[in-house]
Amino acid sequence: MSQRNLTLLTDLYELTMMQGYFKEKDANETVIFDAFYRTNPGGNGYAICAGLEQVIEYIKDLHFEEDDVDYLRSTGLFGEDFLEYLRHFKFSGDIYAIPEGTVVFPREPLVKVIAPIMEAQLVETALLNIINHQSLIATKAARVVYAAGGDGVMEFGLRRAQGPDAGIYGARAAMIAGCIGTSNVLCGKMFGVPVKGTHAHSWIMSFPDELTAFRTYARLYPSACILLVDTYDTLKSGVPNAIKVFQEMKEAKIPLTFYGIRLDSGDLAYLSKKAKKMLDDAGFPDAVISASNDLDESLINSLKIQGAAINSWGVGTNLITSKDCPSFGGVYKLAAILDKKSGKFVPKIKLSENAEKITNPGNKCIKRIYSRETGKIIADLICLEGEKYDENNSLLLFDPIETWKKTHLAPNTYHLRDLMVPVFKDGKCVYESPAVMDIQAYCKKELDTLWDESRRLVNPHEVHVDLSNELWHMKNQLLDSYHFSE
Amino acid sequence: MSQRNLTLLTDLYELTMMQGYFKEKDANETVIFDAFYRTNPGGNGYAICAGLEQVIEYIKDLHFEEDDVDYLRSTGLFGEDFLEYLRHFKFSGDIYAIPEGTVVFPREPLVKVIAPIMEAQLVETALLNIINHQSLIATKAARVVYAAGGDGVMEFGLRRAQGPDAGIYGARAAMIAGCIGTSNVLCGKMFGVPVKGTHAHSWIMSFPDELTAFRTYARLYPSACILLVDTYDTLKSGVPNAIKVFQEMKEAKIPLTFYGIRLDSGDLAYLSKKAKKMLDDAGFPDAVISASNDLDESLINSLKIQGAAINSWGVGTNLITSKDCPSFGGVYKLAAILDKKSGKFVPKIKLSENAEKITNPGNKCIKRIYSRETGKIIADLICLEGEKYDENNSLLLFDPIETWKKTHLAPNTYHLRDLMVPVFKDGKCVYESPAVMDIQAYCKKELDTLWDESRRLVNPHEVHVDLSNELWHMKNQLLDSYHFSE
């Protein structure tokens, strides 16, 4: 991503607003924006946040080149003083964020930007674009991996991804959420993740017959010999020819370490069971039976229930586009403006007739509350920065809408963790992104902090995200202060 | 796109197959691959093909840099002889394609690659990725623009797009299909398309009150003054304040050329009608009433039926992700292999139990048949390269599956057009991509060649794509040649 200048990857209104702040306000007014989302995608019980590394690269690289300025001038919307300001633009603010691979819930700030208003405004669009995309795909991949129940899931979607970045960063997100490999070679190179794949129908078709194609492939790649068996007829041609080749390998004393077949069409339940029996009968009970073809978590789930003899899953289109829910509704909302006189943040709120769309004001942080006994998440608490909590005291949680719903945590039964970490301080990056495979290991542990009831694919139990007493009162005071006459 | 080296943007199996061809076959064997799709996305009656310019850039730029070769070596899959070959790799083949913005139908080759098998194989994944994405979004945008019935549609989806490229090239595709502008500044710079936008809720919230925010905006941008009226209360605060500002502008003799309001939440039918009445009553009947908020073609259609007083549409998430159908199922299939002895292409076919998945073999071209009387498309005919047609003769068309369904075109009542044009010859680009706004103008004419029955949003009439007599017989001979014993 860093090879491209993405500074203009923004909505025009960010720039027209910036010029407005520049001309009409104290352009250095410090504000707080929160990036958060309102609903878990695809009916899931949580999301996996992802994309922070690319947000960091984007922020680090922010600068208007001469041809960017020339282009903006050509729109006729911008004055020379503002364009001159852009020429020297760099990000000078603070950013806090939840690390990639963390399990997150609706209404929690995933990223908090504290910066001069012009800077905070500019970064909105690209920041949302990146976080929305990768969090969407990571969440979808977590569902698919969950459905596969321990079998390996490979990400195969590049050709159906919504452009090159969707393929590259979608595969990155899928790896974070637990895929064992991707077909995407560029993603493998960029992020050091395993790349996987064997051959296509065209390989088979380019030889005079299927058996010759299989034999040739086995000779070339004996240690990862997965043969695609459905080019002509899976059970009458593909599987028998594959077995013939495995027998030849056995006779030639070639070690059959990782070998098997791939099914890419037809009734996968039926074909896999038939193929499994043929492979077993021929003395190849440990052959991998890999399946692909428009799979998703529901289909994998259904195939498992049907007893399909598949132990490796290649998932393409439905994962890389998050087909049933192709967008993650992340938004970026103003939460506070610094009052220079008092040095304090004045909270800001966005009203809506829909209670769920009313924003949480102020300078916030998130405390995750774990049970000391089980290590599982009890709830998340959105607080105001600076609130003090002591695990030796009891803690009262209450639902922010239905406030009579209360939970009382006894002292020393829970553990608190701050979810957001500093990423930029005064425009300088203070965070080092972990390697993708390390994020994957972290994400696996994160998923273990959820009860299985919150991980199930349908109607998961919703983890509570509560507001601290202080934040709740601030929010309600602000709400009460708005009145419009009938 | 050309700033990045996308040569490794491919599935691993393309490279393992390439090495297989390199080591085991005549690596210079010339083959033909067709890129086509099987079903129009989202229940539409056609698709708009798009992305060719980016495919051309990708093909032109294909080369393995030293660090690509190093990375491939590190996988342990590739031999030094093959890696040395890659170091000197460049595309040397021919490519034919249907120009961007053309109305296309299922099973028609959108791109045809005639090249040495190794080269043709490598480019599969990126070519499909690019064409699938842009054709998907162009088709979706054509539906949205159709629903808007002449009102302007603006593309506002960058923040919800699946990564930066999805935002940039998605906006490009949306422009091709008739959007009047995009919020995406980088797309505007890269492709010379109009950029649009005004301000967000954060602009309003950053001022002490809404009226001050509106006044400031109107002072800054008097000639494109669309005020966002739903931050606090649309009808009690937003619209009255907007009217106050328009009145002040009028009194100050500032010309109200392009001005109005934007609704971004609530019941758009109700609010727009109420707002329209308030604006009319105040003497502003020509104010633009713009709407956004999770719009798509169905919702726009419904709002129009309800008599919503909206005349400008900002469409984001649902367009940029093609939410109801986020993938375009383009595939890339081997169609023929050149027999060196005879100098003739030997047709190849991929079988499937599903008749629709059986490929069309041979070196093909597409003739579009127009009615001379109406200028509308009668049908498309997939033929073999070299077949001769004469408009002075009659033409018999028949359904390739239900062959008794026949249509007889009388001499000189129809007009034939070859859809595919040469794009690369011997590795050299021979095609110049038009500017995006020129493609938009072409696309508008293309859409006019469809009967309205094929453009409607639900259950459109399907345009026939037939096979020539010669191709039909070749295909059936090939099918008959495969037999697998029970």
Automatic annotation (TrEMBL), chains A, B:
- Organism source for this protein? Hungatella effluvii
Q: In which pathway does it act?
A: Cofactor biosynthesis; NAD(+) biosynthesis; nicotinate D-ribonucleotide from nicotinate: step 1/1
PANTHER family, per the entry? NICOTINATE PHOSPHORIBOSYLTRANSFERASE
Q: What does this protein do?
A: Catalyzes the first step in the biosynthesis of NAD from nicotinic acid, the ATP-dependent synthesis of beta-nicotinate D-ribonucleotide from nicotinate and 5-phospho-D-ribose 1-phosphate.
One molecular function GO term is: nicotinamide phosphoribosyltransferase activity
Q: What post-translational modification does the entry describe?
A: Transiently phosphorylated on a His residue during the reaction cycle. Phosphorylation strongly increases the affinity for substrates and increases the rate of nicotinate D-ribonucleotide production. Dephosphorylation regenerates the low-affinity form of the enzyme, leading to product release.
Q: This chain belongs to which protein, by name?
A: Nicotinate phosphoribosyltransferase
Which NCBIfam families does UniProt cross-reference here? NAPRTase_put, PRK09243.1-2, PRK12484.1
